[in-house]
Each structure stands twice: as structure tokens, then as C-alpha cells.
Amino acid sequence: MKARLDAIIRPEQAEYLERLLPANTGLLEEMEAYAAEHRVPVADREVARFLEITARAVGARRVLEIGMAIGYSVIHLARALPEDGLIVTIEPDDSMIERSEDFLRRAGLRERVRIERGAALDVLPRLTETFDLVFLDALKEEYSEYLELSLPLLRTGGVVVADNLLWGGQVAGEIRAPEQTASTQALREFNQRFIHHPQLLAEVLPVGDGLGYAVKTA
Questions:
Q1: Are 21 and 5 in contact, with CB atoms under 8 Å apart?
Q2: Which pTM value belongs to this model?
Q3: Fewer beta carbons within 10 Å, N or C terminal of the chain?
Q4: CA–CA separation, 18 vs 116, rounded Å?
Q5: In terms of CATH, what superfamily is 3-216?
């Protein structure tokens, strides 16, 4: 049972939902174990599943991901795309890129993914594609800038998903980890911007560590 989910709903409900969610097997199970062993931050299993459901529901053909890590979310998204679909994902860490490329090849999905090596704030201004879905999951202090730089690339009716918006419950209460003060404050400001953004119809869902979900309306 995830402690952060337990902070949102009653413990027995959190335990039930955890049991209800099917466990991954094969490559995805291996990726989860690798992330846990090497302390690599990847999306929670329910978040990754939500991403795949969303990509299928909106008929996404082009997806922008900010923050790839080892490619766990990318694989879920890529499985939802048609054969000619494309994910553009941004990652600055060479070791993460090397590991993710191995996983993507083994999943048979490498051809659906274009990896942009570099810092997101440097890469985003260079992109020219139009996307159906944008997923934010990188430096929390930069979320607001990611949003403003990616919105012009998102089609009207497209979807924005942003992970970790509750930040272990800290955005709504006491900051328990002093080293996360800057990220917590940044997320508090981002959440306000996200919910009240004039181009978005948005809300924050109690999924994983808090999942922002929005549709671009204009």
C-alpha cells in the first residue's frame, strides 16, 4: 500500500485499490525492480496505466513527454499509439537514455520513440510538432515553464497530464522534507496556475502522488 495514497483515502480503501490493480509481469516488472533497486523515480503503476488509457481514449498519434528516466511511462504510452505514432521524450541524463533504449528495444517499441537529449527548457523551444498529449514528469521547480512552453505545441482538445502534484501530501500541509521546500512551493504555485489556466479545463486527481489532468480548450 502506498503511504501517499493512504493519506488521501482511508487505509482499507487504499489497500483494496492496490490489490485490485493487476501486477505487471515480464519487462515492466523488471523495470519496476530496476527502478526500486537503483532509486530511479518512475511513475506509479496506476499512473502509467492511466497514461495508456488516456492515450487510447483520445486517439493520440503524437505524444510529448518531459522526463523519460528509464522509459517506463514511454512504454505504456507507446503501446497505445498506432504503428505510425510517435512519442517525443526529453531526457538530459545519458545513463538513463542508454538504459531506456535497451528497454524500448526489448519491448519492440524503439521506432515509435524519438529521444531529445538535453534539458527540457532548452529542448522545448526547438520543437515544432503538434501533439495530442503532453506528460510532465521532470523537475518540479520547472513545471510552470514546461506548461507554458508546451501548450503552444498541444492541439486544441489535446490533454495535459502532470505527475506528483500532491508531492507526498506536502503541497497541502507541512513540508516534512526541508530539502523539498523549493519543489513543494513550486508545485503549490503550479497547481494554482494549472487549475485556473485560461486555456485549460483542469483538475487534480487522487491517483498516485496526485495527477493533474486537463484538456486544452483554446
A1: no
A2: 0.91
A3: C
A4: 34
A5: Vaccinia Virus protein VP39 (3.40.50.150)
Domain-wise residue ranges, the chain? 3-216
173's CB contacts (< 8 A; 6+ apart) are none
Kindly state the average pLDDT of the residues 161-179.
Answer: 88
- Flag whether pLDDT at 17 surpasses 50: yes
Looking at residue 4, what is its pLDDT?
A: 57
Burial class (CB in 10 A: 0-12, 13-18, 19+), 23: exposed
User: 133: which strand partners?
Assistant: 63, 159
According to DSSP, residue 23 is labeled P
List all residues 6 or more positions away from 11 whose beta carbon is below 8 Å from its beta carbon. 1
Q: What strand order describes the sheet that includes 154-162?
A: 113-117, 86-91, 62-66, 131-136, 154-162, 211-216, 200-205
Nearest-angstrom CA–CA distance, 65 and 115: 10
**Residue 92: half-sphere exposure toward Cβ, Cα within 13 Å:** 10
Q: Which of 193, 151, 150, 149 is nearest to 171 (CA)?
A: 193
Residues in the chain: 218
In order of 77, 95, 113, 181, 189, the CA distances from 142 in angstroms are 23, 22, 23, 14, 11
126: three-class secondary structure by DSSP: helix
Average pLDDT over the chain, rounded to an integer: 93
